[in-house]
Write a structure and sequence with these properties.
heterodimer, A: mainly alpha, globular, B: alpha/beta, Rossmann fold
């Protein structure tokens, strides 16, 4: 899957979980600092990404991912196997 | 301002922590019961006198106040930033504070050094950002800051309740303890001027806060709860300065008293100088009042802030119950206070005003059926007596005791005199309203009457001895000794850690310490000749880098009276050492004059991780081994401090010529203590040093270093 497609699908998920308009989500947006995710929403995001991409992530490492760009790189690695 | 010294910067920036005109709460939200939400609410509820800006990535407004997505979006100047974001984004928030020009920040968030190495890394990143923008910050991992001054009314904390205004400043490393203390103080109607939880003290520490409080007109007493002391000399210096310049007492409750720290030490000094003993000595040296627990801390604090200091130690006790009066009398004597002896006039007044069954001597017993009028008569009479420096009032609740009236009258009468009065209304339920009256009238109240003694004595000592009598200098006055430093550097380069007596003595000699003259024999024949040259009797000891405890390997022979004996001693020393330590490389056998008719004392140095080099003094033999009768001071010390150290130990009278013993050369011991203090200051590479024994002769005849060892840092 191309990174651009991964990014769009991540933004869609973030928009749904955090209830933010997709157009307001910048590529380098920080989930907490820019988008206002709290600890519960961070966990919901991880679960939603797993469902969206049909992958199982290392939760501890996933929690260290802080931005949209970071999530694209992190999830892409899983998709590439 | 760039590159300004951090301490100077903190001094400049701390004012805005307590008196900001505008505050941004960065990372707040609308959720009650969460730290980010409650901090914002607490600031609003305390009626903060400045402007407050919520900063929240998601909310348009919080509590009816317009919210900003980023702190840099706030159009006005912001004096104080309070960061409540999760730790992962604190550095982003701090970076934006820097961009916004905010110089004072409180970082409430947890998840830093307290969670391990990754957290510590994050904490270092915060400090780097703070340095980049000249920011001073409190925290992270703290409860926050409260300033009750009506011109500010800042409650930048997530404490449950806002405290009442008072004169006590409380600083704490533990946030959880803060909330418990606030609750405790509230129940006792104790108010605070400033209340600070400084958490991990990654940037601003207790030292900068103490300096700030020195100039705070609202603070009369400074209380500190500490878990670790990272800069002992800095803390001592700050406390001394505050005490000397502002006469504000500094009370510290330091946890970790029982911490193990001495078992691995290789010297006597090392094993005797536990962390807690050093801490005790250092606090005393700096004039700091060390408290055993929170209750004792506040018992003493209220005595300082509510009542005038006593002029001397003579106490009058007024009680309606004989038993508690006697118990308190015992405690008065035990504490080192005195029971006042009343003047004839006072005795006559008491006789006229009290029933014939009353005890008109000290302790005055106004008898169980006493009502307020009898208390007033007794208290007024003893207050007027010139032989009385303070009054302890005790009450037990009888059926006819008008508790509230007595409390009110105590406060009324006390206001007429410039002498302290403390009270103990014994019991709980029946006396509670009376206690409230006392507390609201600023009469220190203590549940147990005995508890009145220590606060009284502490306040007396502080005002009469500590404030005006702190000569124990912390600045080294002697020129540095380059020779000793070079010798030590050479030993370190050669990979030596344990210096034998021969090498260690060489270092002491560079300070003109009275080391006994030494010769090193390589053969029995040489030993005999050298012993004869030295003059009998002599002492012979093995010298080897591999032998640290010479007695244990049979490497010491005392009282050698002839050349033949010296030759035999040489052979037995070599034989014993080889038998016990076959691999030891023996440099030879040392020959020294045996000092006679001397008294043995021990002097030492130990390097402490918190306070640096510490000097020890004690008696030799069982006094040091069993009784641990030793005294400590943080180096450097001057001669007056050295003399105090000598007098301080319980067995010091043995040096003073008591019971037919000879008066010893105390001056010479003090001079040697000052010299080892200079050595410790010049050569911080010394981890431990023992002079054991230092043999002290009669007054005027000096003292001699008979044995010594030094352990250097790796």
């Amino acid at each position: 899957m191309e990174k651009e497609e991964v990014k769009q699908r991540i933004k869609k998920v973030v928009s749904q979980v955090l209830k933010i308009d997709e157009s307001e989500i910048a590529d380098n947006a920080n989930f907490i600092f820019d988008l206002g995710a709290d600890s519960m929403q961070s966990m919901l995001l991880i679960a939603a990404f797993e469902e969206e991409f049909d992958i199982e992530m290392d939760v501890e490492k996933a929690q260290e991912v802080q931005t949209i760009d970071g999530a694209v790189d992190f999830i892409s690695k899983y998709l590439q196997g | 301002m760039k590159n300004m010294n951090r301490a100077e910067l903190h001094k400049k920036n701390l004012h805005a922590v307590f008196y900001p005109q505008s505050v941004a709460v960065i990372g707040t939200n609308k959720m009650k019961g969460t730290v980010p939400g409650d901090i914002f609410t607490n600031i609003l509820k305390a009626n903060f006198q400045g402007i407050i800006y919520p900063v929240s990535p998601r909310e348009k407004s919080i509590g009816g106040v317009k919210a900003f997505k980023y702190v840099i979006d706030i159009p006005d100047e912001v004096d104080l930033g309070i960061i409540v974001f999760p730790s992962s984004v604190c550095k982003l928030a701090l970076e934006q504070c820097g961009q916004k020009g905010i110089k004072s920040v409180i970082i409430i968030s947890a998840g830093f050094r307290e969670v391990g190495p990754k957290g510590l890394e994050k904490e270092k990143e915060l400090l780097d950002i703070a340095k980049k923008y000249d920011i001073s910050f409190i925290g992270p991992n703290c409860l926050g800051v409260i300033n009750t001054d009506p011109v500010s009314r800042l409650n930048a904390s997530f404490a449950r309740k806002y405290p009442t205004e008072g004169s006590i400043a409380f600083l704490s490393q533990s946030g959880a303890l803060c909330t418990a203390v606030l609750d405790y103080a509230r129940a006792k109607n104790i108010g605070f001027s400033k209340f600070v939880s400084f958490g991990n003290k990654a940037d601003i520490s207790e030292i900068e806060l103490i300096y700030y409080l020195m100039g705070d007109p609202k603070t009369k007493v400074i209380l500190l709860y500490l878990e670790e002391i990272t800069d002992g000399p800095g803390l001592m210096k700050a406390a001394r300065e505050v005490i000397m310049k502002s006469h504000k007492p500094v009370l510290i409750l330091k946890s970790g008293r029982t911490e193990e720290g001495a078992s691995a030490a290789a010297s006597h000094t090392g094993s005797l100088a536990g962390k807690d003993e050093i801490c005790d000595a250092a606090f005393r040296q700096a004039g700091i009042i060390r408290c055993e627990n929170i209750e004792e801390m506040f018992n003493i604090a209220i005595a300082f802030v509510y009542q005038p200091p006593p002029q001397s130690k003579r106490v009058a006790i007024v009680t309606n119950a004989g038993g508690p009066g006697v118990l308190t009398t015992d405690a008065v004597v035990r504490e080192g206070l005195q029971l006042a002896k009343f003047s004839e006039k006072t005795t006559l007044t008491l006789k006229r005003s009290l029933p014939t069954t009353a005890n008109i001597n000290n302790p005055v017993d106004v008898i169980g059926d006493a009502r307020a009028d009898r208390y007033v008569a007794a208290i007024s009479a003893v207050f007027k007596d010139e032989n009385v420096d303070g009054v302890f009032v005790i009450l037990t609740p009888q059926s006819m005791t008008d508790i509230d009236s007595i409390a009110t009258e105590i406060a009324r009468v006390a206001n007429q005199f410039d002498k302290p009065v403390y009270a103990s209304f014994m019991g709980q339920a029946d006396v509670s309203s009376g206690i409230k009256i006392l507390e609201h009238s600023n009469i220190p109240h203590y549940i147990l009457p005995e508890s009145m003694c220590k606060p009284f004595h502490t306040v007396y000592n502080f005002n009469h001895f500590v404030v005006n009598n702190m000569p124990e200098i912390l600045v080294s006055a002697h020129p540095e000794n380059q020779a000793a430093r070079k010798l030590i550097d050479d030993f370190i380069q050669a990979g030596k850690k344990h210096l034998n007596e021969f090498d260690a003595s060489g270092i002491l000699e560079t300070y003109q310490m009275p080391v006994v003259e030494k010769k090193l024999a390589k053969s029995p024949n040489e030993a005999g000749k050298m012993a004869a040259e030295t003059g009998f009797p002599v002492v012979m000891k093995v010298i080897s880098d591999d032998v640290f405890h010479k007695f244990d390997v049979g490497g010491v022979v005392l009282n050698i009276q002839s050349e033949d004996q010296a030759e035999q001693a040489f052979e037995s020393i070599i034989q014993n050492t080889k038998k016990n330590l076959p691999d030891a490389e023996i440099r030879g056998v040392q020959i020294t004059r045996q000092i006679q008719n001397g008294m043995e004392v021990i002097l030492g140095i130990k390097k402490d991780p918190s306070f640096g080099s510490v000097i020890m003094f004690g008696f030799g033999g069982i006094f040091v081994e069993i009784f641990r009768d030793v005294s400590f001071r943080v180096a450097p010390i001057d001669k007056s401090t050295a003399l105090k150290m000598i007098k301080e130990i319980k067995s010091s009278e043995l040096l003073s010529g008591v019971r037919g013993t000879k008066l010893r050369d105390i001056d010479a011991i003090a001079d040697t203590l000052v010299k080892i203090s200079a050595l410790a200051t010049d050569c911080p590479q010394i981890k431990e040093l023992d002079i054991n024994p230092l043999i002290v002769l009669e007054k005027g005849k000096g003292c001699f270093v008979a044995d010594t060892k030094i352990i250097l840092e790796s």
